[in-house]
Design goal:
Layout lengths: L2 E7 L8 H13 L2 E6 L5 H5 L7 E4 L5 H11 L8 E6 L2 E2 L5 H8 L7 E7 L5 E2 L3 E5 H4 L2 H8 L7 H18 L4 E5 L8 H6 L5 H4 L1 H6 L5 E2 H5 L8 H10 L34
């Protein structure tokens, strides 16, 4: 099993923070190689922090968000050389638990061509791309290559989410590939009235404690920076302590949300989400 990880990074202050180094070190334990690409203005000293864990590390123009960084990494390698490619980014703290256990779990059960830690029904069903794994059959397929050839810079974050994060899963399913989540949304209890009134479901911000209880190894920075669902944070900190995660790694830069409030959709009025096949 040959596995490559491509890590997309951004930091407002042009830093490689300790939680990023922690993440890269953990990826290297389960991957044969890690590529690090950043759209931050990183000095050579900052890039030196990641080089012990990365086969390649570089910066690029700050356009196109994560998908252009991932495309850069994909363009730098031969897809046929790998059995799995992992895409992940600096939007999460973790892993809280060793990644090897998650990979072992996903090697059992129903077969799939791609998988991620969580799935969401915001816009429509999709595997969330803060951590997604593509397997051999998919990597060697023309549809996979065609999708990445079509990735171009998007200046609008909301449009990028619809076209690429959601669009990737939708496209792959239409092409006959199957995706799975490490923690399926169906395993997370929700009151009937909430399922009815808010069918769009984003587990990392709506149910972070339940994900940690199911050994999902990551917590979104967005949870601590903005807490959009207003979940109690003290139980999250207690769960991290119980798992032995070093909370001093949680370091945030105060900054405005990527989307101003006027751009948020009222999800209750959106169409019922499409279900995967």
């Amino acid at each position: 099993m040959k596995r490559l990880a491509i890590f997309a990074h951004y930091d407002d202050r042009g830093e490689v923070k300790r939680y990023v180094v922690h993440h890269l070190r953990a990826l290297r334990e389960v991957c044969d190689a890690v590529f690090f690409v950043s759209t931050a203005e990183l000095s050579d000293a900052e890039l030196d922090k990641v080089r012990p864990f990365c086969a390649e590390a570089w910066t690029r123009e700050n356009v196109g968000y994560d998908f252009m960084m991932w495309r850069d990494g994909i363009d730098r390698t031969r897809l046929d050389d790998w059995d799995e490619i992992v895409l992940t980014n600096s939007s999460v703290f973790g892993p809280v638990w060793p990644l090897r256990a998650a990979f072992a779990t996903m090697n059992t059960g129903e077969p799939c061509d791609f998988w991620g830690m969580t799935e969401s029904t915001t816009f429509s069903w999709h595997i969330q791309t803060y951590f997604v794994v593509f397997r051999r059959r998919l990597l060697r397929s023309e549809p996979f290559r065609r999708f990445w050839r079509g990735v171009v810079p998007q200046g609008d974050k909301l449009q990028l989410i619809e076209d690429y994060e959601v669009g990737l899963s939708s496209f792959l399913v239409r092409e006959g590939f199957r995706g799975r989540a490490f923690v399926p949304s169906s395993t997370i209890p929700r009151a009937f009235i909430k399922r009815l009134l808010r069918p769009n479901f984003n587990p990392p911000t709506n149910r972070p404690l339940q994900l940690l209880e199911r050994k999902m190894p990551y917590v979104k920075l967005l949870l601590f920076r903005e807490n959009p669902s207003r979940v109690p944070l003290e139980p999250i900190f207690s769960a991290l302590d119980a798992a032995g995660f070093d909370r001093s790694l949680i370091e945030l830069d105060a900054r405005p949300p990527d989307l101003p409030p006027s751009r948020f959709r009222f999800w209750i009025f959106r169409p019922w989400p499409k279900r995967r096949r």
